[in-house]
Design brief:
Layout: H1 2-23, H2 26-34, H3 36-63, H4 72-100, H5 123-129, H6 135-140, H7 144-158, H8 163-188, H9 191-206, H10 208-239, H11 245-251, H12 253-262, H13 269-278, H14 284-297, H15 300-316, H16 323-337, H17 346-349, H18 352-358, H19 365-370, H20 373-397, H21 399-402
C-alpha cells in the first residue's frame, strides 16, 4: 500500500508540474508552488532521523561481530570478500551513470534551503577530517562521515568486551534502532505528500527534462547491476566456485524471486538457506553463518545503486565531482552500504553521508525515493545473489578445513 501511495504522489507531482510547465496554467503553478513547504517538512524529517539511525545500526552490526579473531578463517575470508567486491560495485555504478548521463538533457535543480557547495578538500585533508576531535560536535554539525568512523571504532572496541557487557550495549543499540525504524515508517507515510511537494515545483520549472533524466537513472542502475553480475560474480563462481552461470541462476531462482518481490534479502533467508545447501552444495555450517550475516551487512547491489545515485544527483544539482570528491563518495558509500538499515528504501535514506561529502542537497533524496520501487527490487535481487555467491566461494575455499 505504501509503495502505491508513494508512486501516486510521484505521478501526481509529475502531472501537476508538467501541466504547469506545458500550459502555463496559473492554478497548477500555484498548487506546485504552495506545496513546496510540505516537501521541505518531509526532507527535514528524513534529516532528523538519519544520524541516530545510521549510528545505532552501524554500532550494533559491528559490535555484534565481537572479537574479529573469533570469526576464524571463514569470517576473515568473508569480510575480505565483502570489502573487496563492494569497491568495484560502487565504481561500476558511478561509471555507468557517468556514461548514461551523456544522453540526459541539460537540467539544473536550484539549491534547497540555502545549501552551499563547500570547497573541495585535498585527499589528505579529507583523511584528516575523518577523525573528529569532538564526535558530538560532528553530530550537531551533521558531519556524518567522521561520525560513522567514530562509531565504527567505538563498536569495534565494544566488541572486545566480555560477552555480558557487550550484549547489553548491543541490546541497547538495537532497541534504539528499532524505535528509529518505527519512526522512519511514520515518516515514510508522509512520503506521498512530501514527494509531491518536491516533484511538482521542480517539474513545473524543468518540464520533460527531469522526467527523462529519471528514466535514464533507472536504466543505468539496471545496466550497472547486470555488469556487476556478468563481470564479477558469475566469473568468480565459474572459475573459483566451479559452478556455471546456468546452474547458479537456476539454483537460486526461488530466493531471488522472494527478494525481488519483497525488496528484502532478510525475508528470503529461509529459501536462501535451502537452495544454497541443496542446489549449490554449500555446507550447512557455512550457509548457516554466511546467509544471515550477508543479509545483515552485505548489499553490493545497494552499493552500486548508491554510487550511481550520487553521480546522478551531482549532475542534476550541478555539483562538480573532482578526484578527491570521488574518493570521498566511494569511501562513504562503502561504509554505509555495509550497514543499510532494514527499512523500505533505506539505501536512499543512508546516502546522506556521501551527499554531504560532495555538498549536494539532501533534498535530492526525494527525487530518488519517488522512483525507488523499481531500482529497489532490482538491487535487492542482486544483493541476494551476491550473498549466496559469497557462501559458495567461501565454502569452496574452506573445504580442506571441513573435511
Amino acid at each position: 500500500m505504501l509503495n502505491k501511495l508513494i508512486a501516486l504522489g510521484l505521478v501526481l507531482g509529475l502531472a501537476v508540474g508538467l501541466g504547469a510547465a506545458m500550459t502555463g496554467n496559473t492554478v497548477l503553478h500555484t498548487i506546485a508552488r504552495e506545496s513546496a513547504p510540505i516537501g521541505k517538512i518531509f526532507i527535514n524529517a528524513i534529516k532528523m532521523v538519519v544520524i541516530p539511525l545510521v549510528v545505532s545500526v552501524i554500532f550494533a552490526s559491528i559490535a555484534r561481530l565481537g572479537d574479529p579473531r573469533k570469526l576464524g578463517k571463514i569470517g576473515g575470508m568473508t569480510l575480505a570478500f565483502y570489502w573487496i567486491t563492494l569497491i568495484p560495485a560502487i565504481i561500476i555504478g558511478m561509471t555507468v551513470m557517468t556514461i548514461g548521463l551523456r544522453f540526459a538533457p541539460d537540467i539544473e535543480l536550484p539549491s534547497v534551503g540555502g545549501t552551499t557547495i563547500p570547497k573541495l578538500q585535498s585527499i589528505m585533508d579529507f583523511i584528516v577530517g575523518l577523525v573528529p576531535p569532538n564526535p558530538f560536535a560532528a553530530a550537531a554539525d551533521g558531519a556524518l562521515l567522521p561520525l560513522i568512523v567514530f562509531t565504527a571504532l567505538f563498536a569495534a572496541a565494544a566488541g572486545t568486551l566480555e560477552k555480558e557487557r557487550r550484549e547489553r550495549m548491543i541490546a541497547a543499540a538495537e532497541d534504539i534502532s528499532d524505535a528509529l525504524i518505527k519512526l522512519v515508517w511514520w515518516i515514510l507515510w508522509l512520503a506521498p505528500f512530501g514527494i509531491f511537494g518536491l516533484i511538482a515545483p521542480a517539474t513545473a520549472r524543468l518540464g520533460w527534462g527531469l522526467l527523462q533524466s529519471l528514466g535514464i537513472f533507472i536504466i543505468c542502475v539496471f545496466v550497472g547491476l547486470v555488469v556487476l553480475m556478468l563481470c564479477v560474480y558469475l566469473p568468480l563462481l565459474f572459475f573459483v566456485g566451479k559452478i556455471g552461470p546456468a546452474r547458479f541462476l537456476k539454483g537460486t531462482v526461488g530466493a531471488a524471486t522472494v527478494a525481488f518481490s519483497t525488496t528484502s534479502t532478510a525475508a528470503a533467508i529461509p529459501v536462501s538457506l535451502e537452495e544454497t545447501t541443496n542446489n549449490l552444495g554449500v555446507s550447512e555450517t557455512v550457509a548457516d553463518l554466511l546467509i544471515p550475516l550477508g543479509a545483515s551487512m552485505y548489499r553490493p547491489g545497494s552499493a552500486l545503486f548508491q554510487g550511481a545515485a550520487i553521480v546522478f544527483l551531482a549532475y542534476v544539482y550541478n555539483v562538480p565531482i573532482a578526484l578527491g570528491a570521488a574518493g570521498a563518495i566511494v569511501f562513504a558509500t562503502f561504509l554505509v552500504s555495509l550497514t543499510v538499515a532494514p527499512v523500505p528504501s533505506s539505501s536512499v535514506v543512508t546516502m546522506a553521508p556521501a551527499l554531504d561529502a560532495i555538498g549536494a542537497p539532501v533534498a535530492g533524496l526525494a527525487l530518488i525515493l519517488g522512483i525507488d520501487r523499481i531500482p529497489d527490487m532490482m538491487r535487492s535481487c542482486v544483493n541476494l545473489l551476491g550473498q549466496i555467491s559469497t557462501a559458495v566461494l567461501v565454502d569452496k575455499a574452506h573445504i580442506p578445513d571441513n573435511e
